[in-house]
Structure formats: C-alpha cells, structure tokens
C-alpha cells in the first residue's frame, strides 16, 4: 500500500481533491485535523505551548484559542518557528501511527497524507510520491476570500506568504490541476488511482 503526500497552497482546493480521493477508495490522513487535536488540553503539545506563549493564548475553558495563537505567530517569525517545531514532531508521530493502523486493516487502495505543510514537517520523507494540487493564483485568491471572509488584498498576501508554485512543483511527482470543474478533478484522481493503487 503506497503512501502519497498531498499538498498545495492555500485556496488550491486540496480538500476537494482529498474528498475525491476518499470517494475513490483512498484512506485519508488529515494533518490539519491532527494539528487541532494535539494542542487540546491534556494532549502532548498543549503544555509546551502554554509554557512558551503564556496564558494569553487560552480561552475561558482553558483550551488554546487558535485564532489568538495565529495572530501572535504570524507577526513573529521566531514564535512561528517554535510553534512549528513543537507541533510538527507530534503530528509526524500521530501520522506514522495512523499509517501503521491503516496498513494493518488493509482496506484501502492508497494512503493519502493531506498536509498543507507536508514539506516543512518533513513528511515527504515517508511518502512514496508527492501529489501537488495546482490552481491559478486568481482562482486561489477568490476561493480564500470566499472561504475566510477576507479582502482580496489579504487573500493575495496569504498566498504570497507561502511557497511559490515553482517550489511546490519541484517536489511534485504528480500535479493535479484544480482550476477548472469538479468533473475534471475526478478524472485526474481516477487516473492517478489506477496508476498508483
């Protein structure tokens, strides 16, 4: 059973591709979902983050207020680096466990690690291939505006803050173009499933 890393910039429509892959019989490991879980109270990264950032990042119920944490780290590169180092190790560990479980169950054709920070977290090291989702920058900006309720300028700034398309492409074994229709994406997914499963 092959392990595929699925990544792409914000607004490229990775979640749509991920859903198509799930429907085609792939097992999806969602790195974002894991990232949310490992910072919950009682989970491994929680204490480290509270010790570093202080109680200013907590909500009334004692859980970490992710938006507040986001605001802090996006203004400070050093703090963002700490957050990434702290959380990535736990994310990688959890993903490795889920891969093992999925292989033991042996019910899926492929294992897909859906991770925006696939390369940054070093997850590409455990993948048999990297699939990168592509969409035109204008399409991405419109999607991010719609999804997050932000201005065009803010959406463009978020895109500019990420790796360039050239960088993504340099890691890609396959490129899935998601600039067009859902039907088009489904066709690409079907042909990749045949090729890799």
TrEMBL record:
Keywords: ATP-binding, Coenzyme A biosynthesis, Cytoplasm, Kinase, Nucleotide-binding, Transferase. CDD domains: DPCK. Its EC number is 2.7.1.24. It is found in: Cytoplasm. SUPFAM superfamilies: P-loop containing nucleoside triphosphate hydrolases. ATP binds at residues 11-16. GO terms for molecular function: ATP binding; dephospho-CoA kinase activity. It catalyses: 3'-dephospho-CoA + ATP = ADP + CoA + H(+). Pathway: Cofactor biosynthesis; coenzyme A biosynthesis; CoA from (R)-pantothenate: step 5/5. Belongs to the CoaE family. HAMAP family: Dephospho_CoA_kinase (MF_00376). Catalyzes the phosphorylation of the 3'-hydroxyl group of dephosphocoenzyme A to form coenzyme A. This is Dephospho-CoA kinase.
